[in-house]
What we know:
Layout: E1 3-7, H1 12-23, E2 27-32, E3 43-47, H2 55-66, E4 73-76, H3 92-113, E5 121-125, H4 132-136, H5 147-164, E6 173-178, H6 195-208, E7 213-216
Parallel strand pairs: 1-2, 1-4, 2-3, 4-5, 5-6, 6-7
Helix pairs in contact: 1-6, 3-5
Amino acid sequence: MNTALITGTSKGIGLELAKQLLSRNYTVIGIARSPCPIEHDNYFHLTADITSEECPQLLKDIFLDQGFSRLDLLINNAGVGATGCSIETIDVNELRSQFELHCVSAFKMVQVLCPYLDNSKIVNITSRLGSTKLNARGDFNGKGFSYAYRIAKAAQNMLSLCLAGDERLSSNLVISIIPGLLRTDSGSRDAKNTAEEGAQGMLDVIFFAPANGIYHAFGHEAEY
């Protein structure tokens, strides 16, 4: 039985990803600050803040306690939106917390779980808002999108590129996925698809992506 670890499984896209992987006979380890509504023999939940200093040790403990010997799929999904759409309204503390959540914590997951990753898949859930190309093109100018969120997701994209180029991880597939416009708590105002539809599209990418890179769950433009 394959094993997956997903961050942010208490609701939204993380919850849907966990449900759909369980239906594919995966063992799923979920992490979130809140409890998860899933009750399944093959689901293990860790209620923890992934930005905390304690989280790496808690992760190690659950792998040792449950006897997991490898991790087939790591999905760094946890994330929240942010405010501050102009230079005058940016909260520096929020900028720090966004970077910590979307980039630093994703890195920590890979670092801690590296001994269990071999011919595995490392997935970072990104956003169109983190694309330096689209931002440079001016796609989001004056449209009320957060500085902090865009900066944090751009940093996460660079993390994906660094991981993909790391010789220690060369046996693994490292991909970033844009989930599209999903109707979740942190979704965009122009969201179109359900979390269930987004999860289906993302898993199609995860299982069939031919190489490291950035992909869109619904086949649209995907740019770092």
